[in-house]
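Entry for the shared binder. Reason: the reviewer on the internal report wants the predicted structure included alongside the sequence.
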Amino acid sequence: MSSFKPFHKEKYYVSGEVFEKHFYASKEVKFYKNNKELNLTKWNEEINRHFSQSLKEKNPNKLIQHIDAVRYKKLVQLIQPSKRDKIADIGSDTGKLALMIADKTNELTCVDIDKNLLENIKSKTNSPKVKFLHANLENTQIADNLFDTTIASEILEHLPNPDAGYKELLRITKPKGKIVISVP
């Protein structure tokens, strides 16, 4: 644990458990569940475990449904998928965006830190164009300059080191490629 006190803390109460993020001046972020430190992968899996996929896929709140529909429509417009493109969807979550663009691309790689979310997407598609990679955006182990378009929708704000995430997006995207980022 850092010897300095965090300058900001976020607390989430989920199904009787306490999840926390501690932010430090050094740009370090620590993750906790019930006062026990977890790495980002484990913290993410623990939080996702408490939310049903049906709720994540279609929130019962009509306003949130509308906001999501507009966001996904705008993302598809920005991405402009084509049959020749190799696209990476980083932080694929439920796979909604991936399923919207999969048939419009040459190849789509869904990347997520949570294996269970990737398995859920796999169960919804049998397209040979869709590949899956369990990885953290800060270090994907993907080859340099691989993708024509790289998408990071609603993910960068969750990273302990967003700068590393930006650098990774630049590294895995072709020099004249497109990076589409959205944050809340």
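Summary line for the report: The chain has a mean pLDDT of 87.
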